[in-house]
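Lesson 9: reading folded outputs for more than one chain in a single document. The general rule is that every protein is listed as its sequence immediately followed by its C-alpha cells, and records are never interleaved. Here is the first one.
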Amino acid sequence: MSRTLAVVLLILIGEPAVAETSADKPDWTDVSAIFLERCVMCHSELGAARGLRLDTYDLARAGGINGPVLIPADASNSELIRRLRGESLPRMPFLGRPLSPEQIDLIVRWVDAGLPNSVGNATAPVGADETSHLQQEIAPPRAPFTTP
C-alpha cells in the first residue's frame, strides 16, 4: 500500500482529532445555568415545591420529600428526566413551556455521566458568587413563618 493511500485511509476512517468540549461532558456548571433560568423559581429556598431544591448541587442530588430525583449514571430512571420529557406527570416546568430538546439532552448527558461537579463549592447557590455565598453562610437562620 502506498504511503499516500495509507494517509487517505486514515483521514477517511478518522480518529477523533477534536478534543471533547464541556458540552460533550457537561457538569454542574452547565446544568445549573438551565436550572437557574427555568427551575429555581419554584425549586429553591423560597417555595421548594415538594421539597425539591435545584439551586445547589448538594440539594439537587438530595432530592425532595419523595427522595432523590437524579440517579447518577441512569438518566432513564431519574424522575427529574422523566418529568422534563413528559414521561411522568406533571411535566416540568409545571406552568412553563417545556425545556428545549437540547437542554434536556444536556441534563441527560450530565446524569448519565454520573452528575459531575467541577465547582469547588457544591453548596453555593446557583448563580451566586463567592461573596454572596459567604454572606448567606454568616446570616442568621430565618424564623419560621407563623400567624398570630
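And here is the second record, again sequence then C-alpha cells.
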Amino acid sequence: MPSRTSAAESAPLSGARGQPFVLLPHPALPAPDFSIDGELAFAGGELTIRYAVRGDLARLRLPPPSAPTAADGLWQHLCLELFVADGEGGGYREFNFSPSSQWASYAFTDYRVRDQGAAAVPAPAIDCRRLPGALELRARLSLVGRGPGEGRPCRFAVAAVLEECDGRLSWWALHHPAGRPDFHHRDAFVLSLTERP
C-alpha cells in the first residue's frame, strides 16, 4: 500500500533537480478561473511530481479521503495525470493521482494499446494538502527496472482533469494537439528529462 509522505517531504522540489511546468486548459473550452503548475524530477529510477491547483477550491468537487488503493476510472473526475515514454519506440506508462489518495497505473505498447504483460510498478506515495487558495498534490513513484528511464532520455506529458461542483469538466495539459482533449497523443509528450543518477 502506498504511504502518505510527511509535510517535510511535501515541500517544493529543489530547483536544481526539478523541472517546473504550467498546464494549459483546452482551448476549445471557456477559460476556467483556475491555474495549474508544478514541478517534476527524475533521479535514481524515482519520479517525483508536484501539482498545485490554484483558485477557488470551493468550486471544485474534491473527492473525500479514502484508502490509498489502486482504482480505475479516476480520470472521469478530478484527477492529476502523468505519462512517461522512452525516447525510443511507442511504449509509455500512464499514472493517475486523485486527491482522495487513490491512484492508477497503466502500460501501453503504442497509442492507447494496453500492455497487459507489463511489469507492475510499486504503489506510489501520495500526499495531498489543501492550502489557502491552492490544492497541492505530490506523488513519488519508482520505475527501477520497469521500462522508461534507466539512464535514457524520457518524454513526459503532464495533464489534469478538474471537476467543478456543477459537474463541469475541464482538461489541462502541457500542450493540446488539435481536436478534442487527448492526453495520449504523442504530440502531448513535450517535456524531456534524462534520469539523473
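What the second record shows: DSSP finds no helices and twelve strands in the chain.
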